[in-house]
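1st attempt posting a full record on here, be nice pls
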Amino acid sequence: MYKKREFTEAAYYHVTSRTNDKIRVFENNLGRKIMLMVLQDAKAKFHFNLANFCIMPTHIHLLIQPPAETDLSKIMHWIKLQSAKRWNNIHGSIDHVWGQRYYAGLIKDRNQFDFVMDYIDQNAVVVGLSETPEAWKASGAYYKSKGIEGLVDFTPYERPPIKLLSPIPPEVAKLLPPAQLNRISMYYGAHAEAVDRLYKIVKSIPGIRETPPNKPPKICLHYQTGTADYFISEYDGEDTMWGKVRMSVFPNNTEYRKFSLSNLKSNQFMELDFS
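the predicted structure (as tokens):
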């Protein structure tokens, strides 16, 4: 017996539900169309808010806010039951379409909401189903980019328009240490606000000069390892950077010097600070 779920009224939840034995029920357009129609009918029946969604071959993601009078379990039971019935009717089968239980994670604050929004947007991109979030038609990103009303709702927060940069521009990707680039691509995506900000910064970084500046230059990039901080103020756009380094063991030694970007990125602890 499963423990009865407890839900918070007026809260958003990140819901994930997988197909039985990870069968690729929604791999083709027909399967995804069935799911889209069920979601549309569920909204009309239960009047919930849907901030984002993504239908993948073996699972779905929903960022959903149930109405006060209806708990999430009732909504998900109806969605899974109706989608299974319609899929089986079309295919003339009696198969179990869904796995037994869905995941429902409570969204506790604005940061978590934005994280889940970006995570859902990037699902199809990360596994190679589309090059950009908005190119995957069975997703909230597609509906929002096309201005299609009725399924995806406005979010509870005023999010400024974010320029979709997927895939991450090469001039930005080359500045990120490999592990950090992979993490951002997987969980935040190329339209994360930090990546968008870095994209704009790259274009404004001064080129390399022959002699040190007469006055302290503007710090454009900050790499850190925990034992050292690299403050980059100039960049040739390829592999050479000029700035200063501050070691934790020699905090006063901050002379300007040239760095190799590839050498910096080879440090497994290196991170680019976006703050």
